[in-house]
Amino acid sequence: MRDHGERRKLHESAISISSPAASGIAEGDIVEKAAVIIADLRDGTLRQSCPFGSVFGELVEEMSTRAPFTPTPWVSLNAMIGGIRPGSLYTVAARSGGGKSIFGLQLALHIAELGKRVGYVSLEMTETDLLMRLISMMQGIHQGALQNHQLTNDGWESVKAAESAIGALPLEVFDRAGTRWEDIVGFANALHRKGDLGLIVIDYLGLVKSPAESKSRQQDLEDWANAGKQLAKQLGCSVLILEQLNRNMTNRPNPRPIISNLRGSAGLEHASDAVVLMHRGEKKHQGRVIKTSDVDFIVAKNRQGESGTRTLRFEGQYARITQKAHEDTALIESGEVYIMAGEPIVTVVGNLVADPEPRVSQAGKSWVTFRIASTPRVRDRQSGDWADGEALWLGCRAYGEYADNIAASLTKGMRVIVQGRLTQRSYTGNQGQQRTSLDLEVEEVGPSLRFATAAVSRAGSGPAGGGYAKTGNGSQPAYGQTEGGGYAQGQPAWGQSAGGFDDEQPF
């Protein structure tokens, strides 16, 4: 659009220069007038320059607010790329059947559930195919049951629940056959006009139809990659391009993909802010070669950080990718989460949403569960006011005497600092759906002194620095409730379908 305006200005300027020449005006006047017109072009449309520090104020204001990254559903990947941000282009590639479409659809669902508008361009699957995957992904229904029409009564209830949930999402699909790049741009612009566009997914680039006058398919792919980056910048959204890896990579001694295995690699590597290559290993089982359930996310390029690899779990039967039960790398998640250097441990600051629940196993050993809400403070750019952002809900477990100290010391509303190892747990919801939740195996916990005071007393038989005594006084509000990081009301209790702990005993 900007290029079109510049060309129109050039055309109008050329007419303004040629008109006096045809009217018999003196040569000196014509030259002087032409010089003025050309100078205006250079200082205006053709040279839109500004002092290097002219946007410094905007940068400082942006840095005082929450980082622009929107986290993906995968904590491990967030630890590498931070999440997705407006104006950025991301490329995710895999071999045929390697899970790239599942990645794209799961990310699209996640961003839509956060309230951002999402457009999904599907050049490989129909809207019906995508819908079945969404149902499986959201409700934990085996894809085989959906495809073979073998649903139970509970399964049909889950389908109805998915219909209601999907209908409420700002998620739109474009699955027209023979799609050209111009069609994708038109679809994206139409969504942008509706407002709050967060993500465009293109699945996948290799199926975009070249124009009739095309001379090189490779050049088309590179042009579309550059156009994808420009589209992200113009619309202020993230663009995710899915692409296939070249088949000849399997002929190498090491079948793990590298960035040169990416089709149209030159253009995509240059234009993308991050390039992620998906790889599923293989193993022999009973004489057959099968793919493992692990999927490596190889961050081959990362403009916002370091490259590296994270391993997640591929659950093809439920059309989703999940965190592994045990993660040996530092993790990042929304809310007040900080990385402890050199240690695979997460530290979270938040408020208890209910009193800790002490329990006793059949073996007579103590354990406790509690849940915290970590709520970041976000500054409104227009008003300058600070408000609560989106809360991170996290379940926590502790065992033995440590559990007794926690149960005796912490109460609902307290603002605490919790440190531990992040794990993922699968469980069955109230309606029989398979669900997962992130839990924290607690190693250290204590009250935050940002808005309160505390006194520490040693537990009777524990190690030095045992339990924490009750803090504050009767007139003092609970930790963190007066300002910053308050906990939300009306959330489900432990053991309900939102993902709390069940009564499963750890020993």
Describe the 3D structure.
- The protein has 507 residues and is of the alpha/beta class.
- It has twelve helices and 20 strands.
- It has a nine-stranded mixed β-sheet, with helices on both faces. A five-stranded mixed beta barrel has the order 13-15-18-20-19.
- Strand 12 and strand 13 form a beta hairpin.
- Helix 5 packs across helix 6.
- The longest helix is centred in the first third of the chain and has 21 residues.
- The chain starts with a helix and ends in a 60-residue tail after the last strand.
Features:
single chain, 507 residues, alpha/beta, nine-stranded mixed sheet, five-stranded mixed beta barrel, 12 helices, globular, disordered C terminus
Poorly predicted runs of 5 or more residues: 326-344, 461-507
Tally the helices.
12
Strand order of the largest sheet: 3-2-4-5-1-6-9-10-11
- Based on Cα principal axes, name the global outline: globular
Spatial extent as radius of gyration: 28 Å
The overall strand count is: 20
Intertermini distance: 65 Å
The class by helix and strand makeup works out as alpha/beta
Biggest sheet character: 9 strands, mixed
Strand residue percentage: 25-35%
Averaging pLDDT over every residue, what do you get? Answer: 77
Helix content: 25-40%
